[in-house]
Amino acid sequence: MHHRLTALLSSLSPVRPWFGQVNADTLRADAIAGLTNAAIVLPQGVAFAIIAGLPPEFGLYTAVVVALIAGIWGSSMIMVSGPTTAISAVIFASMSQFAAPGSEEYIALVFTLTLMVGVIQMIAGMFKLGGLISFISHSVLIGFTAAAALLIASSQIGGALGLEKGPGGGVFERLVHVVGQFGGVNATAVIISGATILTLIVLSKFSKKIPSYIVALAMGSGVAWLLNAPEHGVAMFSPLGSIVPTVGAPNMSLPLLAELLPVAATVAFVGLLEAISIGRSFALRRDEPYDSSQEMVGQGLSNAVGSFFQCYAGSGSFTRSGLNADAGAQTPVSTICAAGFLVFLLLVLAPYLKYVPVPAMAGVILFVSYRLINFAEIRHVLTSNRSETAILAATFLTGIFTELDLAIVVGVITSLCVFLYDSAHPIVAIGAPTDINGRRVFKNAATYGLPECPQISVIRVDGPLFFASVENVEQQFRRAEAASPVPKTKLMGLKGLWKIDMSGAGLLLKEIRRARKAGADFHIFTTNAPSLRILKRLHVFDELGPDHLHNNKGEAIAASVAAADDRICKDCKLRVFLECAQKPGHRNENRQ
């Protein structure tokens, strides 16, 4: 208990381990990276808040407060947190059922949700649950993000075409509304959104350090001014309500908390999945330590505190984190600088938001949603792994045809089902020796067409041998037996065995007795200490016998070849093993 309390206080301490790495050189690099980041996030924060169904200023508050706290208390040296497209889409899709997006009731509910998300994430981090994220397939996030991107795009097509705002709903409902209103397309709005998107496409070919979103919005605003857009029915943005957040506590009534709990759990999970995936990838790339449980604490603290400053739930941003790394960031000071510079840019540029046309912002969001879909990863999954394809498809299709928050649940359940299925189907391979570059190695006999010894099978089991997998393993044993005209002595390697229970031990005992009853034998070779302890405790070695347990494959083969039937060996031309040279009938034949 004392150890847990110490760890908790350490994770919340304002004195962070990275403080000692800050010096004059890192401060200079972090300041430059922070300025670059602030220029990028200004239009992003506005766009993401609109996606979430919130006034634009709340996205900017989130980009300041959440980034600041997550940067200090998180575990990554360069990851930048704040509003993200995926979480914004989930909030919009989930919270729209409770209140009209943009209404005061809706805004109040989002702040309560954000506090709940933060508390859930902090509790998960304090109980060191960061490792559990590793069990969730990355395909869940790919499929979910693609579904979120289509929902975002479908919500902005009308704005890009100058159509009236629709009633909401899923992807298809929004597209149906656009098709129904197609006769009212505003040509001026199309030109403005087209110019904005074209600017972003061109700028994306150049350096990431260019504040392309600001440039694109400026281009869209310039085109709107040249075409006198307001007189042609093009909507313009309203000025920001305030650039300073109001401090206040969210509504914490128990009935409301119970109602929002499923959505909060989903948003918390999506946020942690995003943040930990990003943080871990950059830590590996930069050869830096990374603590996923501490990242959970940092993300949770940033959302919990942010909810009191009119922030909505945020997470790690891959775009801003990648830009931060490319710009030369060294420590989390870069996120502190980015927050400070963003406040300054707000003071300077906020009055000009009223000159930005709605189709220009819609064009920016359409471009963001397109970039959100990782086509290369999707292609790789679809062409390389059927299990991952099933996970991706289940997540994506659920998000498209039902609710976006349900998609992440379905994806996680499918991911866990695939994990359980794979665990129940360990690899059972029969190996045979072959020469590769002068070395004698064992490879899968069936896959590589290698000859097998008529009397001995060298079997390797990779995976768990437990109650759910014994039936499948036994079936593979029987198929191997059916292919041989005579009973074979089994040499079983358990190097890849990482779990065994009473059912698995029972199968081994059954196979030992079966082999000996048929006139063959059974040997085990392994140096896996945990497996050895379990097998000893379950009395497998009492049945096997000490002379049939070996430290390596060579010992097991030598003992089995020595005990092999000399009458069969005498006429055998294969001489599969080196030890076969000691058996009758050996005339220095070339071993195959």
From TrEMBL:
Does the record carry Membrane as a key word?
A: yes
UniProt keyword terms in alphabetical order:
Membrane, Transmembrane, Transmembrane helix
Membrane-topology annotation of the record: Multi-pass membrane protein
Q: PROSITE patterns, from UniProt?
A: STAS
Q: Name one Pfam family in it.
A: STAS
Domain STAS positions: 446-560
Name the residues that span the membrane. Answer: 33-54, 61-94, 106-127, 139-163, 183-203, 210-227, 256-276, 333-353, 359-378, 390-421
Compartments (UniProt record): Membrane
GO CC list: membrane
Q: Which residues form the signal peptide?
A: none
- A Gene Ontology biological process annotation? transmembrane transport
Q: Cross-referenced PANTHER family, in alphabetical order?
A: SULFATE TRANSPORTER
Name this polypeptide is given: SulP family inorganic anion transporter
